[in-house]
Design brief:
The chain has 355 residues and is an alpha/beta fold. It has twelve helices and 13 strands. It is 38% helix and 18% strand. The two termini are 31 Å apart.
Length: 355
């Protein structure tokens, strides 16, 4: 999907949003941007987020961040601004986007995804009185940077337990959007969960693209093709950590009458995937929404978060969704997942962060 850069309020309509219905909705918020850089504007500006590859409407990672922004707009009465990525953009584009958001007085300014790390390092130094948040990265640090990170491997382990228990063929699949360390955490946890549950199970793992090509997070056709390949090889449960591209994998699994496992958001409840929801067994959720909301609230309260802010199973920062009634009726799977969760929290199980 081609995206056009914009600095806009939550409620501005666009062709991209019209084509991508989301569970987050399109509720309006007030305009947080103007051409003025006066002190009065700074006082009226609010929180801003800059989206990752795929933009808002990916029914996954970016939409989870948007949900936190929307909640802050509603509950905290803050104005909000958004910025969309462009296809194949450079680091300079990200720097310009973050600079514009900060210059307009927004605080905090949040980069959705590790790809914003170099840009945030540069821009945060220029705006020392603005708090910058970055999701899924700890490589850049400063007193005005909050690193919002998650134990993705723990939630993925639970998905592996569920997949192994649900599989009838003994073969399951993992699809990663781009082969980077973050996505390898998803792969590692999933594979470990599968093998600990069924040592004889086979896990097929596929990556859609290699860095610096990050289109594997944005192209559903790539996810669909990869899932078809795994289905042809006998997989009957497929877990994707691929952003918007994961919707293609979900479509392929559902069309074949097999199980899909979603990621980041509870994809069973995503409006854009409603056609396939009966085949979305569960989703590995990351509480990106609360992470975004909590950072915005901390700034509003005058005590901005800084440094590493980690969300794991112990804080319900990651987990498995139970929205699908079919999943909730599978007592043996629920029991196995709950035991694994308890063992991870009790540190009886240490989940790997690399395959």
């Amino acid at each position: 999907m081609r995206r056009i850069t914009r600095i806009a309020t939550v409620g501005i309509a666009s062709a991209a949003l019209a084509l991508s219905a989301t569970a987050c909705g399109g509720k309006k918020s007030s305009d947080a941007s103007s051409s003025s850089s006066s002190s009065s504007e700074a006082k009226s500006a609010g929180a801003a987020i800059a989206y990752d590859v795929g933009g808002r409407g990916d029914q996954s990672f970016n939409d989870a961040a948007y949900a936190g922004l929307e909640k802050a707009e509603k509950d905290l009465k803050v104005k909000t601004a958004e910025a969309e990525p462009t296809e194949g953009e450079s680091e300079a584009d990200k720097v310009q986007r973050l600079t514009e958001l900060a210059r307009k007085g927004n605080n905090p300014v949040i980069g959705v995804g590790f790809s914003y790390a170099p840009a945030i390092k540069k821009v945060a130094a220029k705006f020392p009185n603005t708090t910058f948040g970055i999701i899924d990265d700890t490589s850049v640090t400063d007193k005005n940077i909050a690193n919002l990170v998650f134990n993705e491997e723990q939630g993925s382990y639970l998905a592996g337990v569920a997949a192994a228990k649900a599989s009838k063929s003994g073969t399951v699949g993992f699809i990663g959007g781009v082969e980077v360390p973050l996505i390898k955490k998803f792969q590692a946890g999933f594979e470990q969960g599968v093998k600990d549950t069924n040592p004889n199970a086979k896990v097929l793992s596929t990556y859609l693209t290699q860095p610096p090509d990050f289109s594997g997070f944005a192209k559903p056709d790539l996810g669909k093709a990869a899932a078809k390949g795994q289905l042809d090889s006998g997989a009957d449960v497929i877990y994707s950590a691929a952003g918007l591209a994961g919707s293609g994998a979900i479509e392929a699994a559902a069309t074949a009458g097999k199980w899909a496992i979603g990621v980041d958001s509870d994809q069973y409840n995503q409006a854009g995937l409603s056609k396939y929801k009966d085949h979305i067994l569960t989703s590995v959720t990351k509480d990106v929404s609360d992470a975004v909301y909590n950072l915005i609230k901390s700034v509003k309260d005058g005590k901005p978060e800084s440094g590493e802010v980690r969300y794991g199973l112990d804080k319900n920062g990651v987990g498995l969704a139970e929205s699908n009634p079919q999943y909730k009726s599978m007592a043996d799977i629920i029991a196995a997942v709950e035991k694994a969760k308890a063992d991870i929290i009790a540190k009886k199980i240490t989940v790997k962060t690399a395959p």
